[in-house]
Amino acid sequence: MTRISQMSDREEAIVESFTGSRLPPDDVVVAALRAGDESMFAALLDTWSRGMLWLARSHVSTNDSAEEVVQDTWLAVIRGIDGFEGRSSVKTWVYRILVNTARKRGVRENRTVPWSSAFEHREEPSVDPACFQSADDPFPGHWKNVPTAWSTPEGEVLAAEVRGLIAAALAELPPRQRAVITLRDVEGCTSEEVCEILEISAANQRVLLHRARVAVRGRLEDYFETARRSA
Amino acid sequence: MKSVQFIDGKAVHVVKRFSCDEWVELVTAYLENDLDEPTRQRFEEHLAECECCGHYLHQFRVTVTALGALPPDPPPDDMRDRLLSAFRNRRDSRVEERRSS
């Protein structure tokens, strides 16, 4: 970890937070799990359960139900680790078990809204048209309320208040947008991994990610604007 | 914002420039490196000329960084305990199997 020691505190905190990248390579993870290494299992639990919970929630009707899906998935992982063939990454394998478990449960709960329905409004703008000047204004299509420079002193983005705002913003997102932004931006999955886990196209993945990011940015805007005005 | 300039009566830059409301829809595609070359060029031309959208891009990057900086969120304690206990039981039963075989 010598490389990290040369970074600023803020960068270090950000690198630390990419918890996915703190996990060792797959062969080490699999060997440890097979050998019964409880600390490795605990590390996976702590790193992936949030993303799994949000993803499960996009298929089933209640939070309790989503928690049960996550628990059943981990039980299936415990039973199945000896048979894991390494045809995908461990992460993708675990998340695929989760999606299949959640789908079955969604069917039982009569809650089978196909993921494709999330893209019905994909042609609509992601940013509120009210943010831009209309045809009657001097510069149609240009900002009405112009974005300002957010001052982000060291560590600012990690402030507890910002964390709270992000958590609230994520909780308000439509479940599928929330699943994608959690996997991509919070858990650090690649777009390829997310497409494979969710069985959606790269373009559709990007639509959901963009809309979700626009919404979270909107929540942070209030915070930074207030901070700027009171400065 | 000048979308078309006239030099000696001829229009140059006839390729339509993005307006801000068109530009914002492409920010994630730009950050993902998913724009084709002409579109990427138009995106960056707009960015170079428009301070507002420059701020917006910075804000977007701050947002993505902040999302990646969320601390880990372990599962609820009772679920975590149950799963760790299931993991231990499975390990112990396998040790048993190996001993008896």
UniProtKB/TrEMBL annotation, chain A:
Residues 165-214 form the RNA polymerase sigma factor 70 region 4 type domain. InterPro entries: RNA_pol_sigma-70-like, RNA_pol_sigma-70_dom, RNA_pol_sigma70_r2, RNA_pol_sigma70_r4_t2, RNA_pol_sigma_r2, RNA_pol_sigma_r3/r4-like, WH-like_DNA-bd_sf. Residues 49-108 form the RNA polymerase sigma-70 region domain. Keywords: Sigma factor, Transcription, Transcription regulation. The keyword Transcription applies. GO terms for biological process: DNA-templated transcription initiation. GO terms for molecular function: DNA binding; sigma factor activity. The keyword Transcription applies. NCBIfam families: sigma70-ECF. PANTHER family: ECF RNA POLYMERASE SIGMA-E FACTOR (PTHR43133:SF53), RNA POLYMERASE ECF-TYPE SIGMA FACTO (PTHR43133). Belongs to the sigma-70 factor family. ECF subfamily. This is RNA polymerase sigma24 factor. The gene is rpoE_3.
UniProtKB/TrEMBL annotation, chain B:
It holds the Pfam family zf-HC2. Keywords: Transcription, Transcription regulation. Residues 20-51 form the Putative zinc-finger domain. InterPro entries: Anti_sigma_zinc_sf, Znf_put. Gene3D superfamilies: Anti-sigma factor, zinc-finger domain. This is Putative zinc-finger domain-containing protein.
